[in-house]
Write a structure and sequence with these properties.
Elements lengths: L7 H14 L4 E6 L6 H10 L7 H5 L1 H4 L2 H4 L5 E8 L17 E2 L8 H20 L3 E4 L7 H8 L3 E2 L5 E2 L7 E8 L18 H5 L17 H7 L9 H4 L2 E3 L3 H4 L19 H4 L3 H5 L3 H7 L9 H14 L7 H6 L6 H14 L2 H11 L7 H5 L1
Parallel strand pairs: 3-8
Antiparallel strand pairs: 1-2, 2-7, 4-7, 5-6
Helix pairs in contact: 1-6, 15-17
The protein binds cobalamin (B12) and iron/sulfur cluster (2 copies).
The site of one iron/sulfur cluster (SF4) has 13 residues, from helix 8.
Main location: cytoplasm
Protein name: Epoxyqueuosine reductase
GO molecular function: epoxyqueuosine reductase activity
């Protein structure tokens, strides 16, 4: 049952203050009940197959279309932001071809754990103070967080489709609380992309069919993190040394000029993950992978998918000294890894040497024959 409060405006201010005390960098309010255009846009995205193999997007589409479709009791949304601004230029590492580029969001601890903990603390405080049922979300639930954040005035969805904040640029994680309480909605943020198209132009894989629309199947974030299979050949050269996610469209956004480095120590880049050598990463077995990526979001994709990405980056390194590193992986237990090793060697070895290796090896490994034949 909805708990009525005498002064919703005052309650909102108290919630905002408590959110700041808990370490949230932004907190704003929106109606969770009004209809919006995002439902139709999600339907179009799924219909066009732009979610690729993220089957969960289609499976949960009905609930995902609107907050009330997931929970009919939702009246207001409390939208929280955590600044994860980097202390360095994330594009610089792209020129260091013998190093792996891990996207900014994954160079520190897993933000899901950090934000979920804070959301639960805030939620407990709200219930004890004002009552009302509520639910907390960060990333993984069937809730469209960006349009909800835009509605709350936290920012606007930029042409790269992510939320842009006047204060934090493109570096803001989102978390949400849906509640039965009626809280006064905040005004829109103001600010827009205007004539800018920097994010559209820099995308290495041409993942934007139009401004404000993304085809996830072409996005390096999807290809390196979500896709379990070998990455389609057409994209492999375009990955460069990006081995987990991609920041290009975020990093070029001019609104980042107002951003500051994150104040949360746990989100800062670990020294080991700023510019790890591809040679060292390729040597990781499962226990070493788990140890290096303890508490990191990278752990989620597992050692084999990660090694696949590392070997594609080795193939793109133009560093023939790395060929023996790739060759060791022709014996890897994982066919995914063996296939990526073949591709890397096809790029690093002289044609005659590759042909000779193929004659010796390809028939002995039926799982990756397609990779040998190119
Ligand atoms: C699925 C998903 C992905 C997929 C698909 C991304 C996408 N853009 O849809 C992949 C794996 C590719 C991905 C990548 C990334 N992700 Co992601 N991802 C999500 C997730 C789980 C759902 C997003 C979704 O609903 N997509 C479906 C599409 C249809 O919705 P949409 O993007 O809002 O699309 C809108 C526009 O297309 C717009 N639109 C369409 N046509 C038009 C026309 C006009 C005129 C206008 C104005 C708008 C418009 O309307 C749609 C609905 O609002 C959210 C968390 C969540 N639960 O919301 C995180 C989330 C969006 N991801 C996040 C992050 C950080 C990333 C990466 C930066 C990670 C990285 N460094 O590699 C990249 C960024 C890539 C990019 N440019 O989007 C953050 C973004 C934070 C922010 N400030 O916006 C989120 C919110 C997670 C979080 N809780 O912080 N992600
Ligand atoms: S994250 Fe990278 S690949 Fe994906 S849309 Fe942005 S620039 Fe393109
Ligand atoms: S780079 Fe330019 S077009 Fe892209 S989101 Fe930022 S302001 Fe908008």
């Amino acid at each position: 049952m909805t708990t009525s409060t005498s002064d919703p405006g005052r309650n909102a201010e108290l919630i905002r203050k408590r959110a700041a005390e808990l370490g949230f960098d932004a907190c704003r309010f929106a109606s969770a009940a009004e209809p919006w255009p995002a439902s139709a846009r999600l339907a179009q995205f799924v219909e066009q197959g732009r979610h690729g193999e993220m089957a969960w997007m289609a499976e949960t589409e009905d609930r995902r279309t609107h907050p009330t479709a997931m929970w009919s009791g939702a009246r207001s949304a409390i939208m929280l932001g955590v600044n994860y601004g980097p202390d360095h230029d994330p594009l610089e590492i792209l020129a260091q071809r013998d190093r792996g580029a891990i996207s900014v969001y994954a160079q520190g601890d897993d933000y899901h754990e950090l934000i979920k903990g804070r959301l639960k603390q805030l939620a407990g405080w709200i219930v004890s103070r004002f009552g009302g049922e509520l639910k907390v979300f960060v990333d993984t639930a069937p809730l469209m967080e960006k349009p909800l954040a835009e509605r709350s005035g936290l920012g606007w969805q930029g042409k790269h489709t992510n939320l842009v904040s006047r204060e934090f640029g493109s570096w803001l994680f989102l978390g949400s609380i849906l509640t039965e309480l009626d809280l006064p909605a905040d005004p829109p943020s103001g600010g827009s992309c205007g004539q800018c198209r920097a994010c559209l132009d820099i995308c290495p894989t041409g993942a934007f069919p139009a401004p404000y629309q993304l085809d996830a199947r072409r996005c390096i974030s999807y290809l390196t993190i979500e896709l379990k299979d070998p990455i389609p050949r057409e994209f492999r050269p375009l990955l460069g040394n990006r081995i987990y996610g991609c920041d290009d469209c975020l990093a070029v956004c001019p609104w980042n000029k107002f951003a500051a480095a994150s104040r949360e120590q746990r989100l800062h880049a670990r020294d080991t993950l700023r510019s790890p050598a591809l040679r060292d990463l390729a040597a990781l077995d499962d226990p070493a992978f788990r140890a290096l990526f303890s508490k990191s979001p990278v752990k989620r994709i597992g050692r084999d998918r990660f090694l696949r990405n590392v070997l594609y980056a080795i193939g793109n390194s133009a560093d023939a000294d790395l060929a023996p590193v790739a060759e060791i992986h022709l014996q890897d237990p994982s066919p995914l890894v063996r296939g990526a090793a073949v591709w890397a060697l096809s790029r690093l070895l002289a044609p005659a040497a590759f042909t000779q290796l193929r004659a010796q090896t390809s028939e002995a490994d039926p799982d990756v024959v397609a990779e040998w034949s190119g």
